[in-house]
Structure formats: structure tokens, C-alpha cells
Write a structure and sequence with these properties.
single chain; 180 residues; alpha+beta; PPA1309-like
Length: 180
Amino acid sequence: MSNTPMAASPLTRAVLEIDEYVSGLGWDQPARLFALVDTARLRAQEPALAAQLGLEDESASAGLTPIEQDEIPSGKPLDEFLGTIAWPDAVVGCALSVERLMLPPSAEAQVPENLSEARLAKWVADHPERQEVRMTVAVLRDGGRESALRLREKDSPTEVLTGPDLVPGLAEALAATFAD
């Protein structure tokens, strides 16, 4: 968590920690899913795992620990995959990091009508104002939300935008993984 402000909430720190980790892997990465667990509870209930994760120190026990999950299947749409997830009680939240292309609001009026999903994706990919963005979105069982956005053209820890409502659709999809 070298670039994570300590005054931030535990959820914000977890999102920034995940963003920093995924950033270290470079761009053009697959989507990555993380379980968020209470660090103090992890230390108490799974000391060997906590030690493996470098969390044996008492000072590291506050907050949330992200634990990367198995690779997301590449052939399945993300929304369908998220609909298959059920988390055990020990998981207090989850996060997803995914790369996408985005257009500025000024380009929305230029989008041709009646394009198939594949043709729309190609149109966006070919648009001169497109930007590559990495979105890391986290939700808690209790409803807490946080997001981090990093543009490829401004790939620096000081240029990461955070906020709870930056990617509301993805936050809703992640929150649904905790629905009974």
C-alpha cells in the first residue's frame, strides 16, 4: 500500500491497493476478481494464511485484505459470470478490476444508432477520442462502495480518481453477488 493514503477509509485503501497491484502487472490484463476480508478476523481465524500474506504484524491488522480469486473465464460475459458468484460469510466485500475503452461525453451524440454490440465495440475502438481506462470497483456487504479509475495515458498513482459512484453499474453487479 505504498501509495495509499492512511487517512482513507479501509475500503478506499483496499481499492487503491488493488489498483496499485494490477497497475504493476501492466496494461492489457484480463479482469481480476478479489474477495475482501476483515484483516483482524483473517489473522485470528487463519494465522498461517495471514502469515503467508505478510499480515502477522499487529499494525497490519486494521482494515480489509484483498485476496485475488481464480481467473475469470474469458469466454463468458462479465455480467453472466458475476451472476454465478456466491460468497462465504467470511467475505465482507469484493472488488473487480477491469479495463475498458471509454469515450468523452461529447462523443455520445456521435454514436450511430442500431449498431450490434460487436459493431458498437469496433466503432468505439476506432474512435479518435477513445481512452483506455482501468476501473477497480469494490463493494461491501453493508452497502459501502468505492471505485478507482486510471487512464492509460495518465498512468500514475497520483492521477487515480476515486469515488463511490464512478462506475455505478459495475458496483450494482458486484453488490448483487451478495444478494440472498
